[in-house]
Amino acid sequence: MASFQSDAAANSIGSLADLRMQDNDTPDMFAQEELDREIEVLLAELDQLEKRELELLSLQALEKDAYEKTHPPSSCVVGLENLDSRQIDLLLRDSASQMHFLIADSVITVPAYRVGADGRVLDANSSFYNWLGYKPEQVLGGALQLADFTPPEDIAREKAHFADFTGSIVSNSFEGSRISVDGSYIPTATTLRLLSLAPLEYVGFMLDLTGVRTLEENLRRRNSIFSAIVEEMPHIVFLCDENGFARQFNRRLYELTGKTAAQDDGSIFLESMHEGDRQTFLRRFKQAVKEERELSDEFRLLAQDGECYWHTIKLQPLSCVNGLLALTINNNMEGDRLAHFADPAKLWIGTATDIDRRKRIMDEVLESAQAFQSLANQIPQIVWTAAPDGRIEFLNERWYEFSGHSREHKMGLDFALFIHPDDRREYMSRWKNSVRSGDAFEADFRLREAIESKEDYVRCLARAVALRNYRGEIAQWIGTWTSI
Predict the structure, then answer these.
(1) Of 38, 125, 188, 257, whose Cβ has the fewest other Cβ atoms within 10 Å?
(2) pTM for this one?
């Protein structure tokens, strides 16, 4: 009240001052002396109100100190096991008086209710009313029962925690549900505070778990979706420890090896690796673990048909392990087989991708290239191949014998430097036209030859054709230079 009055007085002074500023040039308004007297009176009233406000605040602080001295907070958390009946009675009376004060004064911001032995709600705070939608008159009139906002199974759970009062005035927290006025169920965590043993009376403090349940449901849904994605991936996906023992993986490894979860003790992945690759894998993996970096390499895995298939295996350390990863891949191991997976060692997540077909094709291409090169070296003409853009990529041994050129030098378009200057423009013009159109190339030209430390030009016939892929695109040019 004092604060309100002082504010009003200050506002009045401001209004008078504004009025005086507006009316300086108006001789028919209040005289200057009269305005000054009114301002002085108001300032005096404001000073008295501020002094009264300070007195009230000081009185309130003294009353608060007196209450805290007669109701020490430490007495509310003392255990009951070492107290006699008189001490317990005094402690509970003290606890009850504090609870009455806190609930009535709305100091506690969490929903709280006080219940008697008959299950009737004796008191509740404003947070309780706002949260569940009940009205104070329902509680003050004695009409609200614990069963009105608590399901039967949760009432039984609450009563079961009365046993906690044998050694403490505060129960363990437990979870359940509460029912709002509109009939909706709210997930709740509750802690009970004993006020009286005979008759039984206690206070319940509740915490809304709706947000937590929403997060848990979102996590469960994400786990389910992620797990389904991992299970259907065409790659082997697995988790392993720092020694390479697989903890979890999707069904692709079982499909490849023909083994089942019952046969797995964590070493199925290592045992499925080709004997010639296993030690190499472990050595490189240990180095990756030491340096905390990703490992990516090609290794062979033994399939149930007895064949070994090449896989690209990639492993990288997990920056964190949470419920999402823990529930992602499940290989249904039970009992003792899971025991050595319970330690909190750092995990690595890995994939194994089947590249056997590509690897075999590459090997065949390499063998074919080696066979072509061997055959080309037996041909008496200069044999060469060029990329689709016309840059020479390969020349057989006849060229190096003919030109004295170094094998380390990449030819590209530098072969033009070995063509006689008078023939160079015509040759390159025809060659560019063929590269552009894809038509067969032919040209008569002179090519420089190195003979015993001197150079000479030899007339040659150049011919080349384009090799095309299945889409009809030029994949490579193959040509010859023949001395004529």
Answers:
(1) 38
(2) 0.38
Token couple for 340: 């050595």
pLDDT tens digits, 360-392 = 766 666 666 666 666 667 778 888 889 999 888
Q: Are 210 and 218 in contact (CB under 8 A)?
A: no
CB contact at 8 A, 269 and 253:
yes
Q: What is the CATH number of domain 76-208?
A: 3.30.450.20
Q: Write down the CATH number for the domain with range 373-483.
A: 3.30.450.20
pLDDT of amino acid 226:
54
Residue 341 has pLDDT above 50, yes or no: no
